[in-house]
């Protein structure tokens, strides 16, 4: 079943009447952003236009993948580059998520995307000027770090607290879990008995992939940062083993746990971890490039051998989950059923108060938390009243 872990941080859920607090980018950032890199401003509560909703945000999703589109101070890692880099004419590209600049509102979802599956917040409708929603509805659709937000109704999903806890729409059936589901279902081509390694195994994507792989009879080896995360990966998620990358020699541990090699590497980290895992892929192995958390802060950069790709006949697949949003309904139905049947674990790591959002993002980028999906609770969750 879903487990929620509360984390005490500064901040409250009390809102000021008529005041909308908004986090903005304060300056270009070096490495992992700190609270001093942002500014928290107060503004009036916005009013919805035709076809829009005013929502009170309750939960905000935090994900390390936002870092590459935030402004860098000095060195800018390759991962921050737009997909259009290296081409003379990229005018036909569809841009789902533009880069942020100083002064922009800090995001939790994808902007300028109008897809109803690319939000980052769950909230409650205060006022509706859209025929499909009414005041009091719970919705997934906010995209910014702020108390109140105006959203387009066509880019918003109604959520039912009788079906799943509303915060599950950012965790268990949120975008990160959907990423893991798509990556495993579409690209791993996994077979019972194969060996799979998953980096950032205790994170929001890794949790989903581990449980799907174990359900289909794979040997699963997780890699995580710290003993507490490794315990979660093996004891609660069911992985066969977990390597603590902070204390262990990853290559040596893989030789011990999988002496014949690895069939699938589902990578959420890249960086220095890439080489010891990549080198141990079997012929016809698969490398699924899902995330690059170690490179987002500019500290590490990975490289792989093209000769090994050829010689081992390896397949490398990068993907962006928004390319597969037509499969979101099937994903939600699949995972909701597993949850109701008690067949899936999904852990939330909760921060309290909008003020704690910068700390939450820093923790997600550094790995300094106990695993699970990081969520910030901004206001009272009256769906549980």
From TrEMBL:
<dbReference type="Pfam" id="PF16884">
    <property type="entry name" value="ADH_N_2"/>
</dbReference>
<feature type="domain" description="Enoyl reductase (ER)">
    <location>
        <begin position="33"/>
        <end position="376"/>
    </location>
</feature>
<dbReference type="Pfam" id="PF00107">
    <property type="entry name" value="ADH_zinc_N"/>
</dbReference>
<dbReference type="InterPro" id="IPR036291">
    <property type="entry name" value="NAD(P)-bd_dom_sf"/>
</dbReference>
<dbReference type="InterPro" id="IPR011032">
    <property type="entry name" value="GroES-like_sf"/>
</dbReference>
<protein>
    <submittedName>
        <fullName>NADP-dependent oxidoreductase</fullName>
    </submittedName>
</protein>
<keyword id="KW-0560">Oxidoreductase</keyword>
<dbReference type="InterPro" id="IPR020843">
    <property type="entry name" value="ER"/>
</dbReference>
<dbReference type="InterPro" id="IPR045010">
    <property type="entry name" value="MDR_fam"/>
</dbReference>
<dbReference type="InterPro" id="IPR041694">
    <property type="entry name" value="ADH_N_2"/>
</dbReference>
<dbReference type="InterPro" id="IPR013149">
    <property type="entry name" value="ADH-like_C"/>
</dbReference>
């Amino acid at each position: 079943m879903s487990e929620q872990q509360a984390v005490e941080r500064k901040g409250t859920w009390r809102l000021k009447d008529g005041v909308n607090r908004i986090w903005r980018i304060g300056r270009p950032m070096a490495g992992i952003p700190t609270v001093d890199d942002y500014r928290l401003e107060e503004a009036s509560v916005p009013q919805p236009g035709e076809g829009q909703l005013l929502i009170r945000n309750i939960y905000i999703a935090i994900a390390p993948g936002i870092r590459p589109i935030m402004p860098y101070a000095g060195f800018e890692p390759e991962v921050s580059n737009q997909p259009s880099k290296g081409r003379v004419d990229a005018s036909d590209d569809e841009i789902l998520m533009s880069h942020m600049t100083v002064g922009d509102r800090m995001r939790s979802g994808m902007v300028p995307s109008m897809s109803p599956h690319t939000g980052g917040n769950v909230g409650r409708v205060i006022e509706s000027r859209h025929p499909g929603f009414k005041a009091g509805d719970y919705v997934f659709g906010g995209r910014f770090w702020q108390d109140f937000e105006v959203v387009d109704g066509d880019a918003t999903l109604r959520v039912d607290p009788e079906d799943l806890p509303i915060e599950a729409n950012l965790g268990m059936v949120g975008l990160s879990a959907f990423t893991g589901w798509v990556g495993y279902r579409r690209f791993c081509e996994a077979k019972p008995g194969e060996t799979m390694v998953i980096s950032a195994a205790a994170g929001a994507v890794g949790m989903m992939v581990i449980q799907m792989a174990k359900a289909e009879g794979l040997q699963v080896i997780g890699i995580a940062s710290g003993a507490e995360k490794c315990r979660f990966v093996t004891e609660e998620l069911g992985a066969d083993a977990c390597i603590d990358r902070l204390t262990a020699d990853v290559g040596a541990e893989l030789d011990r746990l999988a002496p014949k090699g690895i069939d699938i590497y589902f990578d959420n980290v890249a960086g220095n971890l890439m080489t010891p895992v990549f080198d141990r892929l079997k012929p016809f192995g698969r490398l699924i490039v899902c995330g690059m958390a170690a490179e987002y802060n500019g500290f590490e950069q990975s490289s792989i051998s093209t000769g090994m790709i050829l010689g081992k006949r390896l397949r490398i697949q990068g993907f962006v989950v928004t390319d597969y949003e037509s499969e979101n309904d099937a994903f939600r139905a699949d995972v909701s059923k597993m949850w109701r049947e008690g067949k899936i674990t999904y852990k939330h790591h909760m921060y309290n108060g909008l003020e704690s959002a910068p700390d939450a993002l820093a923790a997600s980028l550094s790995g300094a938390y106990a695993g699970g999906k990081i969520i910030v609770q901004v206001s009272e969750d009256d769906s549980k009243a």
